[in-house]
Input
Amino acid sequence: MILGIVVVGIYANAVKGIVNGLKDEDPVPPQVRVAAKNPPFDDYAPKKDTAHLLLNYRDPFRAASTQPVKDPTRTIASTARAAVRNMPRIEDLSFIKYSGFIYTPSSKKTISVLSINGQSTMVADGESAAGIKLVRNMGDSVKIIYKNKIRFIKRS
Output
């Protein structure tokens, strides 16, 4: 019941609006205020420059000093000669030859076969022979100490 009254009221209001709209009376149009126009934005207008140049660097095109230019090839050659002069001398270990190794399963030790000055010698890890100490057998090479320097000798 209440719903029916609400629906009739809405339709009555709609019909009243249509009837008033069909009348020939011209109502007074509302006054519209026109806002003052801003000038158009001009992207191409010159802007004030805010950059500051620091001109305290040297002129790269002006000869600042009278020093002669060094020849880079001479500098490289002299540096290379100095590097060769300062290189440590490598000892000639051609008198030591590594022939192979023997593994003993009972003692689980590897015995290396070395030829020192043409004489075959069998040396285990940690042992010395003719001033040469065998540090470790690597399989394809041996690590030795000769004149307090560690060297590796490949199998020949």
In short: The domain at 96-154 is CATH 2.30.30.830 (SH3 type barrels.). The first strand starts at residue 96 and ends at 104. The mean pLDDT is 78. The beta strands are 96-104, 109-116, 119-124, 128-129, 132-137, 141-146, 149-154.
